[in-house]
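User: Run a structure prediction on this.
Assistant: Running it now.
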Amino acid sequence: MKHHQTGIDINNAQQPRPCIGLIALASDVLVERDFWRMGLAAGVDIVTTRIAQSMPLTPQTLARLEDGITDAVRLLLPEARLDAIVFACTSGSAIIGPAKIAQQISAIRPGVPVTNPATAAVEALRHLGCGNIAFFAPYTQDVAEITSSVFSDAGIRFADRMCFGLQSDVEIATPGLEHYRRAIAQADTATADAIFLSCTTAATLDMIAPLEVQTGLPVITSNQAAFWHALQLIGRTAPLPGLGKLLG
């Protein structure tokens, strides 16, 4: 048997698609699906690793996410290129601190841009010129209060703030469009110039378009904002119809 070895012309090889690394909570039931959906539409690959998370969701259990960041990052394509990394927890980002998260990720993957849903939402609101939001969080009041501080620290005001009091990711994934419609109807949105729906495991991606029609306001969600900001960091624009003014 003859064996033939063929050389590969690396310079003329097909260029890989952009790749976003996603660090998802072990308990998150929706963020991976949302990112894959947006990634397929935008021509971007998504690779996911998971990080341990205890229930119920409290400031204390969310703070412990910090202990697992390094090991989680090491599992994100260690021998291949990543164009950006998303730490996919809104409340955890607020509690740990975006700067500390970015520092830990960059220690393992230096030079790769890093974002998280809280920071991304602030950047999305700035991009749209919005500075007074109606803030909706599925968490308990203490977690919601800390999460909203990322916005107030950035100079964003609140027309109103509401929380649902839920304590697990499975519970948070449950409320549907009608629940959010009722919550928004009960809130004071008269002075709001945008609506923010917090949490990566909230089933809010398909709510963006109908709620924008209902309210006449831009609707920002954790997953939508994080994906948008990751695209910004890698210098890519990809309008995604049906996912709101931010990605339109």
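The mean pLDDT is 95.
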